[in-house]
Amino acid sequence: MKPYIDHEEVEALLTADARARLPLGRQLLVYLNPFALFKDASCGPASVRERARSYNRAMRWMLLPYVRRWTAIAAACFAGIAPTEALAGEASVFLIPAATSAVGCCVAVTMVACTLAAYFLLGLRSREPRA
Fold this sequence. Notes:
Elements: H1 7-12, H2 16-20, H3 24-32, H4 46-58, H5 63-90, H6 95-123
Helix pairs in contact: 5-6
């Protein structure tokens, strides 16, 4: 399984049929990674980078469902912290689930923050360099 999605695949994966044909691991990557369906604007000639930036700016709306998704994950993990901590006080076997809930909540909150930052930064107008 490739850890990333090629430039050519990105636009094809915007359709539900194309995503349904992916193996389960790749579907999970697309479902949880807010940046999986964006193009890499850091490599290639200037024209390719500019087209990728334009595509990413036009498709920034895709980040909002990921914000909602990761917010729900954070809320679920947060809701699981107190009960598992209470159980961990009774039996030490519940220390791992309590820690997992806390770490999961932190990861989810970080994903929400990064996704929102990307959403707002993609919305900024780029300044043309002065001659």
